[in-house]
Amino acid sequence: MSKIREWQGVRLSRVLACADPDGPPRPVVLPAAWDEGAAAALAALVPGAGPARLIEAAEGWIGPLADGAAASATGGADFPLAARLRALLRARRAAPTPGIWRGTAEEAPGFVLNLAAFRDAAGGFDREGLAEAVETVARALRVGAPGPRRAMVGIADLAGLLAALGLAYDSAGARAFAADLARLLRARADAGPHPPGCGVFAPGLADALLGVETGGIAPAFSALAPGGGLTRAACAFLAARGMSGDAALAALLGGESPFPAAGPAAHAAMHDVLAPHLQQLPPRPAILPRAGRAAARESLPARRRGYTQKAVIGGHKLYLRTGEYQDGRLGEISVGLNRETPAFRGLMDAFTTAVSLGLQHGVPLGAYAEALAGSRFGAAGAVEGDPAVAQASSPVDYILRHLAGAYLGRTDLPTPAAEPTPPETLLPLDLPRLRLVKK
Q1: Which helix (H) or strand (E) holds 397?
Q2: CA distance linking residue 100 with residue 85, whole number of Å
Q3: What does the alpha-carbon distance between residue 28 and residue 14 come to, in Å, rounded to a whole number?
Q4: How far, rounded to the nearest angstrom, does the alpha carbon of residue 52 sit from its chain's CA centroid?
Q5: What percentage of the chain carries pLDDT values higher than 90?
Q6: pTM
Q7: Is 320 helix (H, G, I), strand (E, B) or coil?
C-alpha cells in the first residue's frame, strides 16, 4: 500500500489513538503532519480494534468505487477516479462520511469538502481544483450511494477559506464570493446523471479527519485555538492582509482588534445568500428583534482590564478570560479549551458570546449564575488550579460559579456532588476524544 503513487513522499507516523475515552487505544498510522483529532477520527472510522492504517483503510473504499465507476453504464473507464480520490484525501480536501468508510448504509451518505484547503500556489482560491473535486466525488457517489436516499456533497470551513483570502466574513465581498462558490458547486454536481445534493452536514468524523476548524458556513466565533494560540484561519487572515504577528499585537495593545467580528446577523446574511443554491442547510440563525425598551448596550473600553484563569476540570484544561469596564464590572468573557472537539468549542464560543452580550446590555451576572450554575455535562469532576472552586458539574457550571465568586463575592452557590455524570458524554455533535502516545 505504501507504494501507491499518490502517497509516495508522505512521511507517516504511528500513534495510539482512542475513539472511545473509556476503551483501549489502538495503533493508528497516518501522515505525520496530521493532528491528533484526525488520529482519533480514523480510530473511530476504521472498524475493529486492530491497527487503523489510513492508506489501507482508504483503499478499502476507493478501490470498489473506482471499479464500480469503470463498469457502470455511464462510462468512466478512462476517468482516473482512484487517483483523484487519493489526491483529495492526501491534501485533506475531501473525505467521505462514515458509512462509505465502513461499507454500511447511512441516512445521508456523501463527501465533505474542506473549503479552507482549496488554495492555489499563489495563495488565492483554487477554483479549478474545487470544480474537479466536485466532479470527482459526484462520480464516486453515483456508485457508492445508490438507492432511494440522495447522496450529498457537503461543504465545511467556509470561514477558513474566506479568512485565508483576506475577506472579512461580514462583508459584501465575502457574501458575493460565497454565492459564486455555491453556484460553481451546484453546476458541477448537476453536470452528470443522478446528481447529488449540495449543502452542509452536521460536524462529524470526516470534518475531524480533514482538520476542519468551523462547521459548514458558520463564522469563526473566536480567533483563539485551544490552549490560547491563534487558529489557522486567524493566522491565514493576518498573512492575507500582510500583517505580521508584531503588528497584530500592537493593534491589540492599542485597543483595536485585527480580526473582524462576525455574529448571528452576519451568519444569517450568509445563510440568505447561499440558501437559493444549496439543498441542505442548517436552520437560519435567529436574530432577535430589538425591543423598544431594551437596555442600550454599554460598550467596553478599547483597552480593557481583566485576567486569565487557568483551571483543569476532570482532567480537561480550560482558560477563562475576562474583560472589565473601567469601574471593575465584568463585561466580557471568553474561554479557551484544550484538545476539545470543534463542535464543543463552537458551542462554548456561542455561550460566552451570549453571556458577554447580555452583560453589556445590563443582564446581571447573578442572573446567569442562578440559571446556569449546576448545569451537568462533561467535562466534570474535581477542579485543579482554582482554589475558589473545588468541584464542577460542567465547564458552564465552573465558569459561572468562578465569576460569581470573583465579581459578586458569592459563595452560596452549592458545590455539585462528585457523582456519576460520564465525564466524556458531552453533546450529540461531539467527536471522539483522543489519547495519544508517540511511538
Answers
A1: helix 395-408
A2: 13
A3: 6
A4: 23
A5: 48
A6: 0.68
A7: strand
